[in-house]
Amino acid sequence: MKFRLWPDSLYGRLVLILVVGMFAGQLFTSTIWFETHDNRTLEIPARLFASRLADTVRLLRHAPDDATRDAIAAQLGDARYRLKWIAASEVVPPDADRDSERLAHRTVNDLLSGVIRRRLGEPVDLRLINVQLRDDQGRHRGILSLFDSRMPSGDFHVQLQITPERWLDVYANEGQAGMQFEPAPLVIDYLLRIYVVRFAAVFFLALFAVRFAVKPLRQLTRAADALGRNMYRPPLPETGPLEVRSAAQSFNSMQRQLTDSIAARTRFLTAVSHDLRSPLTRLRLRTEMLPDPAWRERLRGDLDEMEAMVSTTLDAVQGVEITETRRDIDIDSMLAGLADDAQEAGHDVRVEGGASRPLSGYPRNLKRCLQNLLDNAIRYGNTAAINVTDDGDTVRIAICDRGPGIADPAMLERVFEPYFRVSTSRGGANRGTGLGLTIARSVAAAHGGTLTLRNGAVEGLEAILVLPREV
Prior knowledge:
By secondary structure, the protein is an alpha+beta fold. The chain has helices spanning 10-62, 66-76, 103-120, 145-148, 183-213, 215-227, 242-288, 293-319, 331-344, 363-381, 411-414, 436-446, and strands at residues 81-87, 126-134, 153-161, 166-174, 327-329, 348-353, 359-361, 383-390, 394-400, 450-455, 461-468. It has three domains: 10-201, no CATH class; 255-317, Helix Hairpins; 325-468, 2-Layer Sandwich (Heat Shock Protein 90).
C-alpha cells in the first residue's frame, strides 16, 4: 500500500490535523518550559552572586575614602569575581541593551535587586548587562547546557552605583552544588514524558474522537451507496451535528424526488402500454381479414414483435425497481424450483453444488434475474447446467448452456445493453427483445453483486452471477 503524507480520507486528515496541531503546540510550549527551567537553573548562582555583591557594596560604602575603596575592591576580586571602577559616563543606559529586556534577564535582574535590597535594607541602582549559562567545559551553550552538564554555572555582568560619582563594573562566575540527575536521563525523561507519551495519548484520543465525529458521514456514505441498489430503502436518520442533519435532510429529499420520478415514469409507461394494446388488437383483427395469406403471416410477425416489445419494456421498468424488503433467501430452494419448472417443460436442466446458508436479498427480483439467465441458456442451448459455490463471503452461480456461444469477445459486454441482440453469433436465433440480460445485471447490481459472460472452454456460453453476503 502506497504511503500518503496527506491522507485521502476525511477521517485521516482530521486525525493528522489534530495530532500535528497538538504536537506543534507542545513544541511552542516547550520553549516556555525551557525558559522557566533556564531561570530556575540560574536562581541558585544568582542568589549566591547577589549575596556576595551585597557584602561588597556594604564594605565599599562604609569605606572612609576612595583610596580605601580601591584597596577593598582589589582584595575582594579574584579570577571568578572581577571588580572594576568605571565613571558614570561608562554606565550602560537601562534601555541600551536589548537583551536586558528578555524575560530571563528581567527575572535575574529582579532577583539580584531583591536580594541586595533585603541584605542592605535599601535599594541599589543595578544594571544587569548580561547573564549566560556555562556548561562543565566552560562553554556558553545556553539552554543546551541543561542536557549535558551536571553543574552548569552562571556568568553575570552587572554595573551598580556605589557612590554618586563612582560605579562598579562586575564580572562574576557563580556555580551551584550540582544537579541530582545525569544529563542523558534528563533528555530521555523529558522526551519520553513530554513528547512521546503525550504524542501517543493525543494520537489515540484523536483516532477514537474523530472516528466518533465522522460516524454520521460514514452512515451517509453507506446510505448513498445503498440508494443505488434500493431506491425504496428507509430514509436516513436526521441526527448528529447540524451539518450532518442538513446533509441527511437533503439526501432524504433527493430520495423522495427520485422515487416520485420513477413512480411517475412507471405510471406513464403502464398507461402507454395499456393504450397501445387497443390499436394493436384492432390491427391484429384487420390483419386476419387480409385476403393474401403471405401478407397475413408477415403482419402477424410484426404485430407479435411490437406487442412483445411493449410488454418487455414495461416488465423491464418494473423488474429493475426494488420495491420489496430485504430478507434471507434460500438459494438452493429457489434454483431447485426454477429447474423443476424447466424440466416439466421438457428441458434438460440440472443443479450442482449449493449455498452453505441463506443469502440476504430481494427474492422477487433475484428470481427474475435467475429466470432470465436460465431462459437464455435454454433458448440457445436447450439445456442448462447450474453450478453453485459458496466461500462464506460470496455465492457464485454459474449457468452454462451448450449453444454456439458468442464468437466475438467484444460482444460479451455489449449484450447487456438494452435491445441489443447478437443473432449471428448465437446460431441465428432472433427471439427475445434484448432486455433479459439488462434486467439481470441491474438486479445483480442491486444486490451489490456482478454478472459477467464468458464462452465455455469447448462450447456454449457461461453466465456467472456473484452475490456478496454483506452489502
